[in-house]
């Protein structure tokens, strides 16, 4: 059928010079199409609608016609129908459901052209529902010996899309045996697509897909060292550069092979690639293809990290690249050198180029400047930090806006990390605050305050520096805030020095008051209140300020002024002193600056094999990977045999070899031993007594704070807070006796899948009737049913000299899997649809139990809410039933949890059903909620 | 992974847009404008073909008046995608016979079919020009 009408229509629209004319033409065409949407013109009309859509016009009809085109027998009509749904609909559209049957039919068709069209559509729009209903058909097309090359490569990428979006619904582990052989396919196109798929699978299931390593090496050998390569796939004299890059990347998800022959083979290949690129050709395409492979090779060499000879060659090449005239090559050289900086023990090969790298901060291209900054950030250490930070600070005022915020962040991190003297740290950050001005994020001055509060030796100096900063002609807002805070806390330390009298301090701050933004004004008022407490001699001017702002229009300002005014005007200073007590130091915590930077790096589809930020950051990345690989290995545990898992555990376990006959349960524990970095300590078979539940345990499972344990000697109170996979517990120990508790200690013991770390240790002595805090951080790595516990030990009667036997208590922490659930609300109508989708594959856990107390809706509702689930009203046809939805967050995944609780009043029974997206969680969560319901008191 | 492909002229009119991540229509409009402003202002001679964009990066190349932009992950191999662009342009050129901007406008539905033969699900699918051309010629003749 001719598309002449379409050409005319497009030409007409192109002639419309103004919007109104275009609108007129569009409306005319829409009316025309509406009137004549007949069968024989359908394809053309749908195509016209698509063109209008692409121009940005709303299309509110034609979807049904597009869907009907899909079931046509003509290729071009079907193609247009599928194009329409991929353009007009997204994976979340309701209409997508209408085409699932057509898709299935086309996947089953004998016509490979139809197979391909359906695969395109799934690869472009595939959402959860398609993953659940069609993944098997797609996989069949991929592995069937009848499928042609075209079908196979499309099926491979189609599965890749479904796996990336919804890995939980594909039985990827089961498929390993069938998918891996595709890497041996003679068709290079098929292998290219399969390599992308297997790269994604291998990141999540490294053990199960480990066979891809020898296959990838064999393929690379063929590409790099042999000459019988099909000419169709030679791109500017380079054999399949894209496939080479993919295979070299795939190998970066594995360590260098243990097998001697294999190891030698890959090293030969790497040598060969480096040799081949000695001469860089003039043709741009040829040179780019070679460089693409070369840089990936260098990345692999750095990743293997064990071949000094190759590493030296790589370092030398990179040194040449960063001096290249080609901007692209300079960019890539700097980027890859940052990878090298995170892997080298001896920084010399990089440090040699420090001048050149610093000069890259002045490159003409902002992209190169950014890579230069990343490299400097990665290569910085104690010995060169001063030089690097100085240069960065010098360049900062000239840096483009886009780069400045990142620079500020990196300077702040480096300064903190490598400061050997406090003074240098304070000087640098203050300079940073005044140079960068408003590009400084709040975190940076917050961090400065935290550090000043935590280091007594620093406080006096900091006060002096901020005061002189306030007197500079220009003082950005953040510097003013720091000034206000630091002088309010530590101004008295310098009050006796000339020019720093209380009045001088007050004047320096107040000179900037009238022009300061509101948030800063508010802070300044607080500082003045602290001044009244510290320096009674300047009470008068401070009081005048409060009095004046009692009538400010802004509520916050007004309220503070009023309150401060009254506090100061009271008869006694008691309240003022209590309010202005010195700030306690912040608990040592991870800098939020670093995590902010990391978030930005980790937004990639294929996992990063390295990160900007030097050795430390890369070690951390590796340990995180080990964690998640472990979690996946366990999650896949049902599908693979015990023997392979045991062998895997044995292979990587340090210390004496373990027997092969471990069952899965023991293995859980074994795996947790594999990671010595995990937690403060892991429960070991040390013969310690079973930890007990404190009297307040059950209550605390639903409440945020309360008393956990109490006896004649001590009381343990708990306050907890959870966010995502993290939890923080403060345990307050109260001494109930008139004696000092001596050699007091608390240690926390994690369990498999819950990492517990001490943040702040308890003091060793607790005075009579005094209280002491102890802080623990928790991290949830997977399903657990036994909570972590603490071990408390102490002796009594230190003062009287009569020493009784030391006390030792093992007490479970009130932590359950439900604490890591976050509520998730969905439309009532969606609930049962999701519910049905989770009915397969043992994802359900159900039980019927009888209640101790007669059924009352309110306590049950309160209880379910306290588990973190969002309760949906109107979702269940029976109003007595409860349904709840939540997302359980662990370090490696998010698990959707659906719960349904059906009470029966007459029989005093309940039926509870839990369905989750990861079967490991269903039963544990069901048990927990069942327990809790049973604990409800009438 | 490729997040999206944009082909835009120097005035910022988008001739081809292919999305591999489900953006809303508003986001798409915004992204088109941002990418154009980012790329068109760059110096073609002295600057690289890569530029950071949000948490990702844009790999781009200019052919006559058209910018071919691929937004890819920060850890993807830049040059492999840069040559991916060139390969795609060579395919367009062979298919339309000396391709120009108007070919892409009048045959937009064919361009989508060509993209689906070269890239799929945000990854490169076929890297042999001969294989792609034989396939496209075959499909073009079908009713």
Report on the architecture of this protein:
The complex is a heterodimer of chains A (938) and B (143). By secondary structure, chain A is an alpha+beta fold. In chain A, 54% of the residues lie in helices and 12% in strands. Chain A is built from 39 helices and 16 strands. In chain A, strands 11, 12, 13, 14, 15 and 16 form a six-stranded antiparallel sheet that branches. In chain A, strand 1 (234-235) and strand 2 (238-239) form a beta hairpin. Chain A is globular and about 95 Å long. Chain B is 45% helix and 26% strand. By secondary structure, chain B is of the alpha+beta class. Chain B contains five helices and seven strands, in the order E-E-H-E-E-E-H-H-H-E-E-H. The interface between A and B is large, with 75 and 53 residues. Chain A: Adaptins are components of the adaptor complexes which link clathrin to receptors in coated vesicles. Clathrin-associated protein complexes are believed to interact with the cytoplasmic tails of membrane proteins, leading to their selection and concentration. Chain A: It comes from Tieghemiomyces parasiticus.
Low-confidence stretches of chain B: none
DSSP helix fraction of chain B: 40-55%
Report the CATH C-level class of the domain at 658-815 in chain A.
Answer: Mainly Beta
Taken in chain order, the helices and strands of chain B follow as EEHEEEHHHEEH
SS elements, strand count of chain B: 7
Dominant shape of chain B: globular
Q: What does the average pLDDT of chain A come to?
A: 85
Helix count from the secondary structure assignment of chain B: 5
Number of helices of chain A: 39
Largest sheet of chain A: 6 strands, antiparallel
Terminal Cα span of chain B? 34 Å
The side-by-side strand order for the widest beta sheet of chain B comes to 2-1-5-4-3
Q: Which helices and strands appear, and what pairs or packs with what?
A:
The complex is a heterodimer of chains A (938) and B (143).
Chain A (H helix, E strand, L loop, with lengths): L3 H12 L3 H17 L6 H14 L7 H8 L4 H14 L7 H13 L3 H14 L2 H16 L5 H17 L6 H8 L8 H17 L7 H14 L8 E2 L2 E2 L1 H11 L8 H17 L7 H21 L3 H14 L5 H15 L6 H4 L2 H6 L6 H14 L5 H11 L5 H18 L3 H15 L5 H13 L1 H15 L6 H14 L11 H9 L7 H17 L4 H11 L5 H14 L5 H6 L12 H10 L12 H22 L6 H11 L11 H10 L23 H6 L2 E6 L3 E10 L2 E10 L5 E9 L4 E7 L10 E10 L8 E8 L10 E6 L8 E3 L4 H10 L6 E7 L6 H10 L3 E3 L9 E8 L4 E11 L4 E8 L2 H17 L3
Helix pairs in contact in A: 1-2, 1-3, 3-5, 4-5, 5-7, 6-7, 6-8, 7-9, 8-9, 9-11, 11-13, 12-13, 12-14, 13-15, 15-17, 16-17, 17-20, 20-22, 21-22, 22-23, 23-25, 24-26, 25-26, 26-28, 28-29, 28-30, 29-30, 34-35
Chain B lengths: L1 E8 L4 E6 L5 H16 L9 E4 L2 E8 L2 E7 L5 H19 L4 H6 L1 H11 E2 L2 E2 L4 H13 L2
Antiparallel strand pairs in B: 1-2, 1-5, 3-4, 4-5, 6-7
